[in-house]
Structure formats: structure tokens, C-alpha cells
Amino acid sequence: MARIVMKFGGTSVGDVARIKNVARRVRAERERGNQVAVAVSAMSGVTNQLVAYCNDVAALYDQREYDTVVATGEQVTTGLLAIALQDIGVPARSWQGWQVPIVSDDAHGKARIVDIKGDALIASMEKGEVPVVAGFQGVGPGYRISTLGRGGSDTTAVALAAALKADRCDIYTDVDGVYTTDPRIVKTAKKLSKITYEEMLEMASLGTKVLQTRSVEMAMKHRVRVQVLSSFTEPPPAHSNELPGTLVCDEDEIMEKALVSGIAYSRDEAKVTLVGVSDRPGIAAGIFGPLSEANINVDMIVQNISQDGSTTDMTFTVGKADLARAEQVINDKLKIPYKALKTDKNVVKVSVIGVGMRSHAGVAQTMFKALADKGINIQVISTSEIKVSVLIAEDYTELALRALHTAYGLDAA
Amino acid sequence: MARIVMKFGGTSVGDVARIKNVARRVRAERERGNQVAVAVSAMSGVTNQLVAYCNDVAALYDQREYDTVVATGEQVTTGLLAIALQDIGVPARSWQGWQVPIVSDDAHGKARIVDIKGDALIASMEKGEVPVVAGFQGVGPGYRISTLGRGGSDTTAVALAAALKADRCDIYTDVDGVYTTDPRIVKTAKKLSKITYEEMLEMASLGTKVLQTRSVEMAMKHRVRVQVLSSFTEPPPAHSNELPGTLVCDEDEIMEKALVSGIAYSRDEAKVTLVGVSDRPGIAAGIFGPLSEANINVDMIVQNISQDGSTTDMTFTVGKADLARAEQVINDKLKIPYKALKTDKNVVKVSVIGVGMRSHAGVAQTMFKALADKGINIQVISTSEIKVSVLIAEDYTELALRALHTAYGLDAA
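C-alpha cells for the assembled complex are given below, as produced in the milestone run.
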């Protein structure tokens, strides 16, 4: 017998028919002999409606009241799913954040889970019941209702799995797993059966929307095995031990580590170049200090070798949404002299990710060669232990993804 | 300084514009120098949608889960109204039933309030805040969310007023008060400035929809002064002490007691006659026992004088919705012999109500004469200390109401 937390997102519980479908899936998991706890999101569209109400009432609002309003979306789903489960013979009851309790801090609207008391839920499961827990919400100081911010239901599910010492946390969504790259662009992209926490974290922070970054961090911290799978495909037969989705897990659990597990890309960055900066100690601090004070995140940074011994060029990337503010900060606040400021929004960051590259040389070289063979110019390079990222012109996105997917032997047979 | 509970029903908070309007009304009440607590219903239509979801998921459902789902309607309104109040400079916060707490019994779906701990709300008001409390809901045993049944928000408001020792409970609705009779039928109907609890209770149980019977009972029990008024008319100026609506209060507070305060009618009853019942001791028990066991309420009862010394006719009324079941019980369960069973749905019960009739004779006589003058035949009569009711043919409803309204001198000048 295993203990499993099943999490269903907004599209999976989008209407009454889908909620009934989810109930049948929960029953099937229970019929495999497993203990099950469920975490649910609001029915799709509901949260947006509730947020719109708040915005219509006032431009600026008390986050605690916002939380009181929007947390009702998940509450409705818990009650309806409990009814649907009971209706097909599965004992079940709904749990709100304050009932469990899922204790959060007071950062209303984007609260963090501080503690989950799992005793009541474990007792419920031990007597054969399925607890249906409201995702996305908790209870903050003063018994006020809190919410965890967008995508918080994933975090609830992983935190629940940790608190309940669950064997696995299954995140049901509208895709059937994590792919080697975006299958809408690269037709030969393959679904991964397993991926490490570290790789998934890089994938998530680089724009792969399957799991929220925070939930992956929490899974990694508490070593919660997370499976990403679809609620719209047929489940495997009852006797099968095969996992239909992608398992996000510890490196030790993956026998054959691929050199590169996936290729991610992000169109969210813009390039900034300061030309002719005087080349002396302290210039990096002089440039990035004011940007940091303005709360602008800088990602990739390249400082060219000084051409004339006295000036250099400094290139870096910021979020596209921050570009205008970054230009303003540079114009207004920078005390360091420079000749010119150039910016470019038509760039894309392409990254190859794999824990295998820790122990293998030549991974970056393969990337550079594959791009050069297609005539793609690399503008900026940055590397981490398990990732190599390059900035290239946005027009080459698809070409680069396909070339790299082939170069690393990821194409499906 | 007075302490006032203001209650706003579903149409009063039906959309964002109306919620903002309610916020301004609350601010105006506060600017009169009063302490204010607010109780709110769900936005109109929301509760029906939530109930429909439950019905769509399963024909029979766990009332505790039903309560979890439908209680969200009021929760949304509390948050939005708190935001609207803050937005116009009024400190405010939302309170759910479990936060106050409003403790209920475990009769989920139609729970009764057992206790309200007013301390936190009083502390909130004392520091200048407006507590916005979710109507209709409480917290039952095991910290489960409960609801009080349809119209329960009125009950919440009155119970809150009692717990907070409020000077008055203002129930805002879509009519501007209680009228001497239905103004849609009698154009000369007048709004009453005051009415006693006892009279209001008769009016409410006779189908005047302004206040829910349970809330009037609670007001009478705890001597809570209740004002019924409209949220759609202009409030009186700040310096005015005039109450714009109808005050439901203790008899002692009403200086000039009218002989008859109002004329109510109910089309919800049907007449049943058992012809030729043998006239011997125990026949009433033999007829009404089986009906009572079947949970059928019997209202007016008339036993004719025995015509031939051995048989009599027994006439009574039951709710129209119960008529078919009543016929079945009489056919199947009655051990007493009778000659024939006659039923009539085309009847209306018209009642004149007034605490003044306790000390005055001739009130019934005025009624009988006024009806006789219009050629209206009285089929059944029943009386209580403050009420005379007659059953007449339904076609005569409007004629009877107008005749009685004039006969008791209730017509507006």
C-alpha cells in the first residue's frame, strides 16, 4: 500500500462532468490499494472572476480581503468533489486551509506555507476516507484566510505530500508529462519518464509551464517524488506499476542519466549593452547596484575584454517587462561614464539542461558547434553546473531548438 | 451613540455598483456617530448557482458538503464589501461564521444558531472598525461549516444584534417597510411606522415575505428592535432621527395601538372536507393523528354541529403542496368511517391582525359584516388573540382585501 496525494488543476475540475471524472480517477487509485488525499484548484475561470470583482470594487485593496474572496473558488471545488466521491461510494470529506490547518505566514496574496498539521488528515485516511483539501489557501496569523499566489495549488499538494509522508504526489494537468523540449516546435520531442529536481527547477524557471518553480523547490527540499500527468488520458490498468507521466525525483532514482535531459527557451529577456565603459575596478558594482536597488533582476552578464586598455563594453539581460525601467535607471542613476546605451528585444535565451554534464566535458562545445553549423550567431553565453545558456536572435528560435535536439540525440525514434 | 447592525440582502449587494452603494450607506450611518456591524447575503443569483452545482453532482448529497459549497456566496460578499468600505475611508474587515464564531448545531443545511461570541466583533467596533459578517452561515460541531437555511441571513443579523447588545437591527431589502396590506392589490395601503413582534410574526407566517418567521421569533425572544427598510431609496439626512422604514418592536414602544394593524392573505392553503363522519368522542384524534404522523400541517379546523345526531362534517385546511399526500393518507390510513371526501384548492385565507383586538370587542363582527356587504361567503373561521382569519373563495381575494382595508379605517388619506 502506498500513500498518494493527487492534485487536480482548474481545467481538470472545470465543470461538473470533469469533477465526476476526477472522482472516478480517485476511486481507481484507491482500488489499487492506495491511501489517497486530494488537493484541488478552483474550477477554471472562477478565480479570474473573483479577482475581477476585487479589481472592480477598488484599484488598491486589502490583500487579506482579496484572499477571503478568491479562496472561495477552491472551497467550492472541495465540497463538490467530496459529494461526487460519496456518490460513487468513496467516503470523503472537504478540508479548508483553516480546518487542516495549513498554517501560512502573513504575506497575504502570496503567502508561504509555514506548517501543515497532518494528523487529522492521516486519521481521516486511516479510517478509509479521502480528504479533499483546498489548494492555494491557508490560514495566516489571527485566523485570517490566506492564499499562496497563482499556481499555489501545486505547492499545497507538494507540501501536503511532505506532511503526510506520501510516497508520491501526482500533479494532474492538461499535458501528459515533461518533454525534452517544446513539442509544439520540435515534432520529435519525447516525453521524459524521469527528471531530477535540479533539472526540473531549471526547466520551470526557464519558462516550461508544467510545474510552478516554488512547488519544485519545495519538492526538492522535502524529497517529495512528484509525477506530472494528464487528467484527460486513460489511466494505466489496475495491475500495472508503470507511471504514465513524468516523475520528478532524486538523481539517485534515475539509472541512466542523460547528458542533456531537455532544451528550454525563454523569450522573456532583453539585451542591454553599455558601450565604452571605462575599464576600472568597481564598474560592475557601479552598474548593477542601481539596477538592483530598483528591483530589476539581471540575468546573463558579459564583460568584453578591454579593446584600448581604458574602456570596455558591458552586456547583460533583463526581463523584457523591466527594460524601459532599466533604461531609465541607467540614464538617471548611473555615475559611471559610458559612450552609448544599446538595447535589443529581439533575442531568445536557449538552454541545454542535464545533470549528466557535471561529469562530462564537451557539452557546451556540442552546443556551439550545432549552432555554428546552422549559421546562428551566439551573442551571450552563461553556464551553471547543469546548464548552458546562450542568447541568440529571436528569429532563430525554432531552428536552434531543432538543431540542438538532434545534436544531443534527443529525437524520438 | 447607538450601536446598529445593518443587514443587506442579495438584491442589495447584487453587483459591484450596489456593493459600493451599500458601503456609502454604512459610512453614512457611521457618520451619524453610530457604531456599525454589517451582515450580508450572497450576491443575488449566486446561491442558486451553487445549489445547482450540488444538485448536478449528485441527487442526494452530504449536507455538510452542501454547506461548504453554498457558504462561499456570503464569504465573497464580506470580502468585497470590506474592500469597498476601506476604499471610501472606512476601516473594515470581513468575518466568516467560524471566525466570529457563530456557533450552530449540527442540523446542516438548516442549522440553528446556538451561540455567538461577540467579544471579537465588539473589540473591532470599539477600535473604529466595521465588522462585515457573513450571513446565513455558522460553524457546527467538528469545526464544519454550517448554513442556516434559506433566508438565514435575517436570522444572523438579529442574532448578531442580540449578541452585540445593539440598539437596533436594520434589515435592508427591496421594499421600504411593512404595509397595512399588499400594496400591489390595495392602492391605498399605508406603510406602518411601527408594528409589534406578535403582529409581525402573524404577518410573516401568513406569507408577508418581508421578514423570515425565524428571525422575527428570535427578535421577539431577545427583544431586538428590527427596522425593515429599502436599500434603494435615499437615506434621511444626517441630522434626522426619523426612521424611514417600519420598526418591529415591543408593544410598549407603540403609543397608539391600532385595533387592526394589517390585513394579510395566503393562497397557499387548500380546503379538505370529510362528509358524514360518525359523531363520537375521538374522531378528531382519529383524523388528525395519521396526518400528523405523515408530517402534514393542519391549520384551520371546523367541526359542524351534528345534523342527524350521529354524523357530522369535518372541514380543515392543509398546505396546497401537501394536498395530494393528505388525500392519500385519508384514503389509506383513516380508520374512521366517512361518507365522502371533498377538496378545494380555490380558496384564500384572509386575516386581520392587531394587538389592539385583545382589549376590544367587535373586531370579528366588523370583518364578517364587511364581507357580507360585498356578498362574500365565509367558509371557515379561526381566531387567535390578535388575529381573525377566514377562508373564502380565491376569486374574491382582491375584493375582500379592499373592503376590509376600508372597514378598519386603514386607507391612506
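Chain A touches chain B at residues 16, 19-20, 50, 53-54, 56-58, 60-62, 64-69, 71-72, 75-76, 78-80, 82-84, 86-87, 93-94, 96, 98-99, 143, 145 (CB under 8 Å). The first strand of chain A starts at residue 3 and ends at 8. Further analysis is deferred to the final report.
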